[in-house]
Amino acid sequence: xxxxxxxxTTRMYDEVIxxxxxxxxxxxxxxxxxxxxxxxxxxxxxxxxxxxxxNINSNSNEIYFTKGATESNNIIINSFAxxxxxxxxxxxxxxxxxxxxxxxxxxxxGFINNDEFGFLDLKDLEEKIDxxxxxxxxxxxxxxxxxIQNIKKYLK
Length: 156
Hints:
This protein is mainly alpha-helical. The chain folds into 2 domains: 14-62; 69-153, Type I PLP-dependent aspartate aminotransferase-like (Major domain) (Aspartate Aminotransferase, domain 2). Helices cover 42% and strands 10% of the residues. The protein contains 6 helices and 3 strands. The protein has helices at 14-26, 36-56, 69-80, 95-102, 122-128, 151-154, and strands at 86-90, 108-112, 133-137. Strands 2-1-3 form a 3-stranded parallel β-sheet, with helices on both faces. Helix 3 packs parallel to helix 4. The chain is globular and about 55 Å long. Pfam families: Aminotran_5 (PF00266). InterPro entries: Aminotrans_V_dom, PyrdxlP-dep_Trfase, PyrdxlP-dep_Trfase_major, PyrdxlP-dep_Trfase_small. GO terms for molecular function: cysteine desulfurase activity.
């Protein structure tokens, strides 16, 4: 079989599936539980946080694990929402981002224009951002047209 929808999901390597299966058999307890099985899983979660943090040069207390992108997007967007706050995003965001913004309570949500290739209009971003803007959400790699934004350019 040839699978061509890797923008939606990608099959894991067999080796990863085997490791995950073995892990799930051994470490199945609730990491918040106070019994030894739970504490063992909690230690594995802490260890995973430390591995991720060291690979991205951050602190382990800055690493949060979620079930997926939709949950992550909702947490971030809603943590910045507020009746006095504005947000900016792109017209090319993942549907979970658009849905989260539509269901949030921002004072205003603005959309940054893009060109015909999906790259952001930097001048439009500069014109729309102001002191009330608490969140700017820009998809780094667009999941349908594969545009890769030059984020460093926007941070200047």
